[in-house]
Amino acid sequence: MLVNLLKRDSFFQHSTLLLSGLAVFLLTSCDKSKQASDQAQTVSGSTLPDEVLAAKPVEPAELFGPEKPVDPNAPKAEPFELNKSSIVSILLYHDFVERIPKTEMMVSVPTFRAQMQALKDASIPVIPMSDLLAWRRGEKNIPDECVVITLDDGWVGEHQFAYPIMKEFGYPFTIYLYKKYVNIGGRSMTFAQIKEMLAHGAELGSHSISHQALAMKNGKSDAQYSQWLHEEIAESKKWLEETFGVPCRTFAYPYGNKNDEIVQLAMDAGYEAAVTVNPQKVTWDTPPGKLGRFTQQWDKDTNFKLAVSFHGRNDVASSKFVKMDAVDEQGNKMFDLKPEPNSTITERRPVIEVGLARVGGVVPDSVMLRIGGYGAVPAEFDPASQTVRYQIPQKLRLEECTATLVFRRADSDKDEVVSWKFKIDQKSSYLPPEPVTAPDVAPTASIPDKTTAAK
Ligand SMILES: [Zn+2]
């Protein structure tokens, strides 16, 4: 991802320089203009390795002539800093029903309303998919923690039951339609119903032509299969855009069924992103062709709670949020947290550790550690020392990282949540790798073969 970031940054940098010089170089000779356009092509095509682009000195004065004098009265542009540590949960709903769900894909009106209300009560913003895309393009910031709502398949219940509630809350949403289930009677939405929603805050996404599993060849020849995939992925986008006159920027794999080839085809077809049914939050590092979604089934709240649990403020009703610097009756800190809260670390693969000895009596199965950018991670819990430990497997890319631990004491029926942040020194990203140092243990202690106690 770092490579991509560099690419993105150097692209913006070059584009800005090119634009600022544009007015001037248009007035200069054709040769210079040709030279500049060659440069533009090379840069936008990213044919140069990133290191070369980053290291290459850019001299606009030489390329485009003298720089325009700055107008002292011109309004200063607000410095824009992109927040790459936002986390987004995409909710996936299908059909809705007034009272009791008849299939797992249905959610009842009272449950849906309660969920929308819960988002509002917990101050979790609902953003349109287009904002998520703009953030990923580096054009705007979105809230640290927010939700995108998507409705699949084009069921009439989406218009009849969900749409009025979302209108009431003022929530944007995206509908994923497949051509064969648009305006065909039965429980499909009509053109008019779809257009009405698109005119009032809904965005359009493609869910293919036929809603068949795309990775299944089903006896087709290679040529037939690739033609079919092209129709399902690329032609469906074209049809939706022509039919409804709005852009269709994202794709939802039917049943979440996909492979690397299909993901690539979706990107090649011009979608900015594609959504799956893997219940994972979207971060800056999530590949655009694999944005996870949390499927809402029956009237169960499980996936909803998973989706809206940001830094432990989930289950606001059923969990207890404990301050990271909470102390026990003797005034000792309840949690030993590593890395230290609010510290800046240079190790980009830190060990995340929570000592719960002073909490005591923690139920091993209740322990869940979540790391910003990773989601829930398979941390180890050593009941003897009451320590939770997780070695970050890859270098952290965020400037700031949030770790959240959920646990329950044996004598309690409430989950407790402790959350803290630390910063990662980004400058260390550009330094050569440091020699491997011994783990952070007392120098006199002998290091056992196994660094963590068996669970
Ligand atoms: Zn579907």
Descriptive overview:
- The protein folds into three domains: 2-64; 87-308, Alpha-Beta Barrel (TIM Barrel), CATH 3.20.20; 319-430, Immunoglobulin-like (Sandwich), CATH 2.60.40.1220.
- Helix content is 29%, strand content 19%.
- The chain is built from eleven helices and 19 strands.
- A hairpin with a 3-residue loop joins β14 and β15 (375-377).
- α1 (2-27) runs antiparallel to α2 and α5 packs parallel to α7.
- It is globular.
- Residues 1-68, 312-317 and 433-455 have low confidence and may be disordered.
- The structure holds zinc ion.
- Zinc ion (ZN) binds next to loops.
Tags for this model:
TIM Barrel; alpha/beta; disordered C terminus; six-stranded mixed β-sheet; Immunoglobulin-like; 455 residues; binds zinc ion
